[in-house]
Specification:
- By secondary structure, the protein is of the alpha/beta class.
- The protein folds into two domains: 1-88, Arc Repressor Mutant, subunit A, CATH 1.10.10; 92-304, D-Maltodextrin-Binding Protein, domain 2 (3-Layer(aba) Sandwich).
- Helices cover 38% and strands 26% of the residues.
- It contains ten helices and 14 strands.
- Strands 3, 4, 5, 6, 7, 10, 11, 12 and 14 form a nine-stranded mixed β-sheet that branches. A three-stranded antiparallel β-sheet has the order 9-8-13, with no helix packed on it.
- The longest helix is centred in the N-terminal third of the chain and has 23 residues, at 60-82.
- The chain is elongated, with a radius of gyration of 24 Å.
Length: 304
């Protein structure tokens, strides 16, 4: 009974989505792959995979076990790298989770440069705004935008972004330009539903903190949707500087009440707490740090 081989085989089946492709990746016969997975399920006493003629899917137990398998396999990879002459070479698959808008606007243009620098690293990038469990879901790294990173994870700051209050010149001509956050309660606002403070927008003003509860005419989990409506004179938005920077520069949107500073968030690379970091993950973190340095939309220069 080879527990490590069973785990490696199970993870390969999940990663590839089929027993046949897993067999090719492992240079193993399909019956051998099926046998290892079946023996693993029998030993654990649970079903890990739901099998149909069309596709495979993880059970809840399978999802949890898959995350642990990926963590164990990654640790073995690090251990082998430490005693190998190839320890400094970045190679292998790296799974990354990034926020949707930041991933599209800022990170998507960077991946080709990383691929050129590290041709032996294979990228698997997932865009999602939910907070994933890195260990259970098998991610090597995530980029998160938050006030403070999760204390259970190791993190490195890449940059900062601040929330910017803005509207189109057309909207302001028709409805007037608010001079104090309290006036937002009577204005048309377009709200990002996943904002941590909800419909309470917070600012730091000349006389101290100010908070106002807004009544959105549009509420959506897509900041891009809010901004698109704002460009069409439909209301005031409260969005990160990396998303509205280009519109502010072009004049499509205009910043409101700049003397009332709004929320600032750090942008972090986070990864599971481990004593050692694999060369591929270290390469990715260092690459992102350098790429984000001095970004024009940063709330402040990132510190490392």
């Amino acid at each position: 009974m080879d527990k490590f081989l069973e785990m490696k085989t199970f993870a390969a089946v999940v990663d590839s989505g089929s027993f046949v492709q897993a067999a090719d990746a492992l240079d193993m016969s399909k019956p051998a792959v099926s046998r290892h997975v079946a023996e693993l399920e029998q030993r654990l006493g649970v079903r890990l995979l739901q099998r149909t003629t069309r596709k495979l899917s993880l059970t809840e137990e399978g999802r949890q076990f898959y995350g642990r398998c990926k963590s164990v396999l990654a640790d073995v990879e690090v251990a082998e790298a430490e005693v190998s002459s190839q320890a400094v070479v970045a190679r292998g698959l790296i799974r990354i989770n990034v926020p949707v808008s930041f991933g599209l606007l800022e990170l998507a243009p960077l991946w080709p440069d990383f691929m050129a620098q590290y041709p032996e690293v294979e990228l698997d990038i997932t865009l999602a705004d939910r907070v994933v469990d890195l260990v259970e879901e098998g991610y090597d790294l995530a980029v998160r935008i938050a006030r403070l990173p999760n204390s259970s994870l190791v993190s490195r700051k890449l940059a900062s972004t601040r929330m910017v209050l803005c509207a189109s010149p057309g909207y302001l001509r028709e409805h007037g330009t608010p001079q104090h956050p309290a006036e937002l309660a009577s204005h048309t606002v377009l709200s990002y539903s996943l904002l941590a403070t909800g419909d309470q927008w917070e600012f730091a003003g000349p006389q101290g903190p100010v908070a106002v509860t807004v009544k959105p005419v549009l509420r959506t989990n897509s900041g891009d949707t809010c901004i698109a409506a704002a460009r069409k004179d439909k209301g005031i938005v409260f969005q990160p500087s990396f998303m509205v920077g280009a519109d502010l520069q072009s004049g499509a949107l205009q910043e409101l009440m700049p003397h009332y500073r709004s929320l600032e968030f750090g942008i972090y690379a986070v990864y599971p707490t481990r004593q050692h970091v694999s060369p591929k993950v270290r390469a990715m973190i260092d690459f992102l740090v350098q790429a984000m340095r001095g970004a024009s939309w940063c709330g402040e220069q990132a510190s490392f």
